[in-house]
Amino acid sequence: MRAIRVLAPIFLCTLIFASHAAGQDTGPQTPIVAPPNLMLLVHQEIQFGKGNARQRLEAAAARAADRYSVPYSWFDLQSLTGPREALTLSPFDSFDHLEQAFVGWNQIYATHADLARLRDQMDELVAGEDAVIAIRRNDLGYRVSDIDLASARFLRVIEVHVLPGHESDFTEGAKILSDAYEKARVDTPWAVYQVKMGMQSSNFIILMPMTFLKQNDDLILSEEDMQNAEGEEGEKRMQQIVREAYAGTTNNLYAITIETSHLAKELTPADSASGTSTAPDASKNAATGETSMPTGVPDPAADSTPKTSGKN
Hints:
The protein has 312 residues and is of the alpha+beta class. The chain has a single domain (9-18, 31-263), classed as 2-Layer Sandwich (Alpha-Beta Plaits), CATH 3.30.70.100. It has eight helices and eight strands, in the order αβαββααββαββααβα. The chain has helices spanning 2-22, 51-67, 95-111, 113-123, 167-184, 214-221, 223-245, 269-274; strands at residues 38-46, 75-79, 86-92, 126-136, 154-162, 191-197, 203-210, 246-256. α5 packs antiparallel against α7. The two termini are 20 Å apart. Mean pLDDT is 80; it is low at 1-28 and 267-312.
């Protein structure tokens, strides 16, 4: 019962927004946001009892970013399964775009003291932080072109830890699974990313955006169809890959909280698909000559020892 009380506000806010958006046929449409070429995932453990305070600060930061037309997007996610944590997904076209964001945020914070103050207040509530950079595998995934992160309200994040030397086995397994999804005509698409920094390089992350949780019911009902589509040989090969190539997997569900996320106006479908960056040119801040990290990105110059709140 306690868990239902904790999760109910997140579900209610998310579902109300999704229903409202689905029922609108007129007015300006939000640009489609395709899965980025590069994503920065930042896991944050918030100090015990500070979750609501963090949400209020994040919402204020998102409103300020909208007001100032900040050209960098982020999606704020709250865990519905697994450890209670906040997860921020920041989309980028390339490492060059990421570098430009570092400098761009420095300029934004220097210009808008209220945003810098909100960043500092949010940092004070963080008990621990872990950042990962991953690159999209264009050769893997299922109906990736159908994904629109801007309309998603939930996100399944599946981390696959592959044993060294077995990356090709994972690739084979992902293609077998994609073929089975296609033959079974499953509607839910997914994208595959390979971790480049922050974890072992042989780790992979599968993103499965969803508009409604009902899509999980559809996936469960489609399991038998997918197994039949794999065929006996395909199913045996998949079992072998999981047994011999995987060190482990985690599969968690997150709610995308719209009021604490920011979608840059400059992030258009063409930019998202072509890798064209709209970020300002990388240059040092004229006032300080320094660069600083965007919100949610650990500063390598700072103490990297994880912080703990001292509470369970």
